[in-house]
Amino acid sequence: MFTGIIETLGKVTSLEAKGGNLDITIESSLTPELKIDQSVAHNGVCLTVVSLTDTTYTVTAIAETLNKTNLNTLKTNDLVNLERAMILGSRLDGHIVQGHVDQTGECTSVKEDNGSWIFSFTYDAAT
Q1: pLDDT at position 115, please?
Q2: Cα dihedral sign for 8, 24, 68, 39?
Q3: Fewest beta carbons within 10 Å, which of 26, 60, 69, 126?
């Protein structure tokens, strides 16, 4: 579970296609604190750490994740928003989110409303 509050940015150092999946290697100040099998949200998408070096870590985005998120548009040197999983028993600075994507939607309109923005979306209710 995540709070939705970005902790830091990471830099994509390598992208490696493996079948329909994508290994994404990130350089980040969080790396020394990570362990293999930990969950980290990348642009809001929960991915599991599969390998570590002193300065980088690698996660794998499977084909379904690539189809339903913007992670398939990443390029080397792109920055990604990072957040580690929340710690139970401490203050939540945001809200509880899973980081798992259920489906994609299409933004149909954006309206400015007295300093706020109202976004409208459509989605396939059958999926």
Answers
A1: 83
A2: negative
A3: 126
Decide: 6 and 97 in contact? Cβ < 8 Å. Answer: no
**Which phi-psi region, left, alpha or beta, contains residue 81 (left: φ > 0; alpha: ψ -120 to 50)?**
beta
Enumerate the domain spans of the chain: 8-99
Instruction: Give residue 94's pLDDT.
Output: 63
- pLDDT at residue 91, as a whole number: 64
- Cβ distance 82 to 99 under 8 Å? no
Task: Give the integer Cα–Cα distance in Å for 68 and 87.
Answer: 27
* CA–CA separation, 20 and 94 (whole Å): 34
Q: What is the CA radius of gyration of the chain?
A: 16
CATH hierarchy code of domain 8-99: 2.40.30.20
Q: What is the pLDDT of residue 92?
A: 66
Burial class, 54, CB count within 10 angstroms (exposed 0-12 / middle 13-18 / buried 19+): exposed
pLDDT at res. 53: 96
Query: Which parts of the chain register pLDDT below 70?
Result: 91-99
